[in-house]
Structures are given as C-alpha cells and as structure tokens.
Amino acid sequence: MRSRDPKTLAEAAIEGDRASLARLLSIVERGGEPARVVGRLVHPHTGTAHTVGLTGAPGAGKSTLTNRLIEAVRGTGSEVAVLAVDPSSPFTGGAILGDRVRMQDHALDAGVFIRSMATRGHLGGLSLATPEALRVLDAAGFPTILVETVGVGQVEVDIAGAADTTVVVVNPGWGDSVQANKAGLLEIADIFVINKADRDGAAQTQRDLEDALGLATRERRQPAIVRTIAATGEGVGDLWAAVEEHREWLRTSGELERRRERRVDDELREIVVQRLLHRVRELRHGKTWDSARASVVARDVDPWTASDELLEEAVQDV
Amino acid sequence: MRSRDPKTLAEAAIEGDRASLARLLSIVERGGEPARVVGRLVHPHTGTAHTVGLTGAPGAGKSTLTNRLIEAVRGTGSEVAVLAVDPSSPFTGGAILGDRVRMQDHALDAGVFIRSMATRGHLGGLSLATPEALRVLDAAGFPTILVETVGVGQVEVDIAGAADTTVVVVNPGWGDSVQANKAGLLEIADIFVINKADRDGAAQTQRDLEDALGLATRERRQPAIVRTIAATGEGVGDLWAAVEEHREWLRTSGELERRRERRVDDELREIVVQRLLHRVRELRHGKTWDSARASVVARDVDPWTASDELLEEAVQDV
C-alpha cells in the first residue's frame, strides 16, 4: 500500500512520480492542515514553471485549443501539465468531458499530466486552491502548465488572469469583443485568440478587438491577436509562438517578477481574509455570539459595542 | 452657534429637535467613532418605530407611492419619517429629485421628516449605515419610518428587506413577476403592490404573482397583493391598511421579535466582518506585510505560513 503521508508523497512527486502527484493535488483540493503541509513542502521547489491561463465564453473552443497546445508543447519535446478549473461545478474532479477526451488522446504520453480541479471544502474555494495546485505542479517539474477555466464568472477571469501569460479565447461575430470588454477580459489578456477563424466576421472581430485594445491598453504591452481553427490545428503554431514570445518579454522586461509579487500580495490578502471570515463563521455558533445578540435585542448595548467583545473572541486562535 | 457634540445633538433630537436630528444623521453617514457614540446614545431609546421598506425596479413608481403613503400616515394624525437610500450614488444626500418634490409637498408639515442617505465613508457602506440611521429616527420618536431604496441591486433588496414590513412595487406587464422572482423579491415581500394598475395586464400580473407566490411562500405568511394608481392616489388607502394589518400580525404572531433578532444577528456579523476587513486593509500598508510578501517571493516561507504572522498583527487593536 502506498503512503498517504504528505511528506513522502511530496518527495515522490518532486522526483517525478505521477501517482503521488495526483494524491497531492487531492490533498490540496480538500484543504485544511494537510494542504498546508503540502504547501510548505513544495514551495521551496517552485518558480520554474511558466503558467498559461486560458479563459473565454463556453463554446469558444478552449478545450480543443488546450488539446492542440498540449500537442504544440509536446512537439518541442517539453513536458506539460493541464489544470482544468470549473468553479460552477464543485464536484467535477477528473470527470468533465473535455478531460476524458484529452485523457484518451494523451493517455499513453507520460509527458502529459491532466487534472480537473474542484474545491471539495478548501477554505477560500478555487481562488485559493488553484495557486496551491499550480505550485504542486511547478514543484513536480513541469516547465509549462496550462490553466483552463471552464466557467464564465469573475472567479474564472481571476484564476486565468493570475497566470504568467493569459490567453483570452473569442469567436468571430459581432459583440464578442464588447462582451470581452464588459467581463474585464481586455485588461487581463496578454494574447487574444480568435478561434473558429474560418467563420464569417473574423477580420471584423480582429478590428473590433484592436480598437478596444487601443483604448484599454495604453499603459501596458499591446496584446497579440492570433487567429486559430482549433478543430484543424491551424494557427496553433502561431499561438504557441505568441506564448513563447510573451514569456520571453516577461523575463527580459522584469514584468515577470512584478506580476509574481502582485500575485503573492493578492494571495496573502485572500488567505488572511478567508481565515478571518472562517473564524467569524465559527464564532456565530458560540455562546458569546448568542449573549451579544441577546444584549443588543434587549437594548442593553448597541451593536458596535457588542461587536467589540465578539472581535476579541474572533481574533483568538485564528 | 449650535453644538456639534453628539451627546447634546442626540438629547435634542430625542426631545424632537429636527435640526439636531439632521446633524445626527450626517454623523452616522460619515461613520467612525462619532457615529458609534451616536449609536450608543440612541440605542436605549429605540424599538417603538415600525419600519416599512419599499423596493422595486426604477420607474415602478416608488417615489410617488412613498409620497402618497406619507399623506396616508399623516391622515391618521401620526408623524412619519422617510429615509431614501441610493447605493448607486454615493453623494445623493438630500439632493435626489424625488426628494425635492416631496420636500416641497411637505415642507410646511413639521410631522414629516425626509432624508436621503449616502455613505460618505461609513465602514461597511449603506448596509451598515442604514440600520444606524433607522435607530436614530426611531429614537427621535417617529412611529412610522418609510425606507425607500432607489437602485435595483442586492444591497437595495437587502436594505428594504430588513424593514419590519417589506413592500415590493411592480407594474402590470408580462415578465415583471418573473423578474421579481429572479431578484429574490418574492422571498422578502410582505406586501406586493401592482402600481399603475390602470395599465393593461394588471389582472394577469396579479395571477402571475399569485402563482409564483404559491410556490415561494409555502412556509410563511402569504403576502397581500394590492393594486394602486399612485399618480391619482387610488388604492393607497388599501395599501396602508395592508401595512397596518401586517404590522398587527407581526406583533401578535411573535414574528416581529424573531425578525428583529435575525436582523441584529445579521448586523453583528456584518460589523465584525467589516471591522476585520478594515484591519486587513490597514495591515497591507504596513511593514509586516511587505516583509511577508518578500519572504514568500523569495520562497523562504509559503503563503499560509506567512499569513500566520499577518493574522497575529491583523487581530491587534481591531
């Protein structure tokens, strides 16, 4: 029987054992103290992977494109990991359709590791579990990690946008660039992909995007726009070249360090806030809370004064 | 020159001085320690006012209806206060159109007090400033307080729904009851008003509402549905009768105490959370934060371990 001890698993995963890696990721999904142990163990081994986030509306072709990118990376001889994140579905782990398709395509290729991500109780949800999972994959030695977000909410945008290189996938057609603007995608995109570029309106969508980006990105690097047909693989080479080019720019411009620092900042804030909110939730089940409420209802104290005592208790054992 | 000391103002407001009352509300809007002093002073004098929340889509006729309700209450000889809350506009204080119209209508009537509410920096925004303002008006002796929310987001629904009696205003027309359902209005409504009931479709809207409510309110009191034409005043007497009936039911059923206890619970939670979040924001500007981030970036510690120290500092002087 294999060990479930995080330390043994982490050591084996760092040495390249994929079964141990899968178990580590399950521990991260579940959160709690074991996940923290994993985090402490892998963190010193991180920092070499380049993460590429893919986001966009459902049906835009993200899964097919991710599959093509796997091929492109493998064509360079490099290993690749894929993390598919679906915040709208808490129990997708390893079971979403796109995953199974890709699993079949790459089942015999030991250089490809594919994993769906669910929260399963992690404090702070996927926005905290995802960076932890990425560090595990980083420590396991994958030079490239693709992060595909499956839903379309703010969480998905945040997760994809927290990658080193963010790819936003749209399709030809009026309004897609407008929607991208509304969803905040213009701000996070390092590369725009117009997928299904054989459809009507690809050129117009590119012009719309260029116009919108001209306004939105005055103070930062202008995102590349690449046209692809993921179904046939057309343009995927150009997309990968754009990713590589962006990676090189990040490294030479110093932007990579700035981004990673900002990301640590955001993650620290989120951890602190989530731990405090968790403490408040626990507190509400306690006696101090009941008596504070009763005192306010009886008008013995006002809510702010009552909150003083609650805060004092809230901050114990955080 | 008048005193701006909260204690003197509170005593004068409780004695019926309206200028002092207006100043107290400005203090509450600004938040901070002076607002807490006001809260402590007025809280023992609260508990007698009946609060009636009005919410609904823009253009539904809430302002006109509020104006008519003022007349209805004044017709009974009772004094009335109106708090108009517009979360979408942080600086509306005393200046929104509906307000000025009503001000003119009731300018010579000392039994009517109308006030627009903005946050102006209150920690926790309008969802915390509103209950505080309501307690000030309660302590000032108004037996009835109308709370009109001007926007259409979750905050507005929360604010109106936190009243003793919640009135949801819709208009005749297909889909309005569906939208009410989507916005969570079916759950919070104690009374539905179909305003502009002289328009086509009023009967159909009533049937739609009854169907939707039949499903949504199995486990609670069935909301009354009242048709009004606020522009002419038709049906406003029925609406006021429905409010009075609901008030009586709240009192005799014990539901009033349960609701107020729940509201205190929600408010306490919000205060505790906002105070902790405020502390986290302050913390981010400090040296401990900078050094924690630097340690994580340098991979000396992982983010969770770094957060331990930050939490320890976060919980000091909350």
Gross morphology of chain A is globular
CATH superfamily descriptor of the largest domain in chain A: P-loop containing nucleotide triphosphate hydrolases
Global mean pLDDT of chain A: 87
Terminus-to-terminus distance of chain A: 36 Å
Order of helices and strands of chain A: HHHEHEHEHEHEHHEHEHHHH
Number of strand elements of chain A: 7
- The name of the CATH topology of the largest domain in chain A is Rossmann fold
Biggest chain pair interface: A-B, 46 and 46 residues
* Assembly annotation: homodimer
Assigned CATH architecture of the largest domain in chain A: 3-Layer(aba) Sandwich
User: What is the spatial order of strands in the main beta sheet of chain A?
Assistant: 3-2-4-1-5-6-7
The largest sheet of chain A is:
7 strands, parallel
Total count of domains of chain A: 2
